[in-house]
């Protein structure tokens, strides 16, 4: 029987990265850390474990130090780094950010492998200095081989930022969601065999969950998801104002009939804008003139609505995929305390599980190249 690698799930959200790794059958979670109260409720509901823990605190770092593990997983937020003096080192310039705490944990506990996930803006953040600093910390100060990074003879790190960017639309779901993935192997543990890992990160998946957004949408949604006529009119005015200025901002209907294979825009945790860029036409219910409890004006007569949280969950691989058992029963659900607003936020903050699953299988392939169990024991 092949060994299961122990992992810790930091900045855990509702456990999407964890689930992607668990789907491979080769990883076992031993500790989680998350500070958002409602995300913790959902996480415990799904996994039976309370992930509450602040990775910036000394007490939680001590918990990690006391927990034997192999793989560190973290979907950390993108934050500004300070400008440190040359003597301070790259790590010092990240102080006060979540990345600093992740790097500090890695320095204390020496995980054999790490996967870090972030928004695509990380690559251009602070004119690219933020990403360069992260790579310098990982390679030069923590001693990791980062997939996609080579070191020149004079010590300069050579990389192409595009090699870290992967899009959910290429991993089985119809969602345009570019994200940064950083995969690292500890040089001291795996030895110089890590230099055999010259391969780039996977660019796509053979598994297709849906042909297009048409297969995701569940028509005839509850009236509460339909826009009021007044709100739709406001959105149209806003879009027209920007259009006159030559901007492409504004609401978007993503299932227009002129596109046979539509995909959604990226789902966002920021509420309104994430929904407004992903409106759909749903004419299965007659909405013209009807009122919904939370609306100040009657519903619009075009059938324009927001996608439902359930549809967002399908686009992220939580619903209709990751929690489906061998009998075909889907075990994903939210606890009753989690509102629709929180559900949108949690899915918008989450990773796309099928993309993470591919990255986890890539790590297993790398372990095989490195000799697998030769260093175990």
TrEMBL record:
GO annotation terms (biological process): DNA restriction-modification system; methylation
Catalytic activity: a 2'-deoxycytidine in DNA + S-adenosyl-L-methionine = a 5-methyl-2'-deoxycytidine in DNA + S-adenosyl-L-homocysteine + H(+)
Pfam families: DNA_methylase
Gene Ontology molecular function: any one: endonuclease activity
Gene3D superfamilies: 3.90.120.30, Vaccinia Virus protein VP39
Documented EC number(s): 2.1.1.37
Nuclease listed as a keyword: yes
Active-site residue list: 78
Broadest EC class assigned to this enzyme: transferase
InterPro entries found in the cross-reference section: C5-MTase, C5_DNA_meth_AS, C5_MeTfrase, SAM-dependent_MTases_sf
NCBIfam families: dcm
Protein family per UniProt: Belongs to the class I-like SAM-binding methyltransferase superfamily. C5-methyltransferase family.
Protein name in the entry: Cytosine-specific methyltransferase
């Amino acid at each position: 029987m092949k060994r299961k690698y122990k992992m810790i799930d930091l900045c855990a959200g509702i456990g999407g990265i964890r689930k992607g790794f668990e789907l491979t059958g080769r990883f076992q979670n031993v500790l989680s850390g998350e500070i958002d109260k409602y995300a913790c409720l959902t996480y415990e509901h799904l996994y039976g474990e309370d992930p509450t823990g602040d990775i910036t605190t000394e007490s939680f770092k001590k918990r990690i130090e006391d927990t034997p593990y192999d793989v560190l997983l973290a979907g950390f937020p993108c934050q500004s780094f300070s400008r440190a003096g040359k003597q301070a080192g790259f790590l010092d310039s990240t102080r006060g950010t979540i990345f600093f705490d992740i790097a500090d944990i890695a320095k204390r506990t020496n995980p054999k492998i790490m996967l870090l996930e972030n928004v695509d803006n990380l690559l251009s953040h602070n004119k690219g200095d933020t990403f360069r600093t992260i790579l310098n910390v990982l390679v030069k100060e923590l001693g990791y081989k980062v997939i996609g990074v080579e070191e020149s003879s004079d010590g300069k790190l050579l990389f192409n930022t595009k090699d870290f960017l992967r899009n959910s639309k290429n991993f089985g779901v119809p969602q345009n969601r570019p994200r940064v993935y950083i995969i690292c192997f500890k040089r001291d543990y795996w030895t110089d065999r890590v230099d055999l890992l010259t391969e780039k990160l996977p660019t796509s998946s053979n598994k297709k969950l849906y042909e297009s957004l048409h297969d995701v949408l569940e028509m005839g949604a509850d009236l509460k998801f339909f826009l009021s006529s007044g709100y739709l009119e406001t959105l149209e005015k806003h879009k027209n104002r920007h259009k006159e200025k030559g901007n492409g901002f504004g609401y978007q209907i993503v299932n227009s009939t002129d596109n046979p294979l539509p995909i959604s825009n990226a789902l966002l945790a920021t509420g309104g804008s994430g929904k407004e860029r992903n409106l759909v036409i749903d004419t299965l219910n007659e909405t013209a003139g009807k009122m919904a409890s939370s609306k100040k004006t009657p519903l619009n007569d075009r059938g324009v609505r927001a996608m439902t949280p359930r549809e967002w969950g399908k686009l992220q691989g939580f619903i209709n995929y990751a929690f489906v058992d061998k009998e075909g029963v889907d075990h994903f659900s939210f606890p009753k305390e989690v509102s629709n607003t929180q559900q949108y936020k949690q899915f918008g903050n989450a990773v796309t599980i099928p993309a993470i699953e591919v990255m986890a299988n890539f790590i297993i392939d790398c372990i095989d190249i490195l000799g697998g169990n030769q260093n175990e024991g």
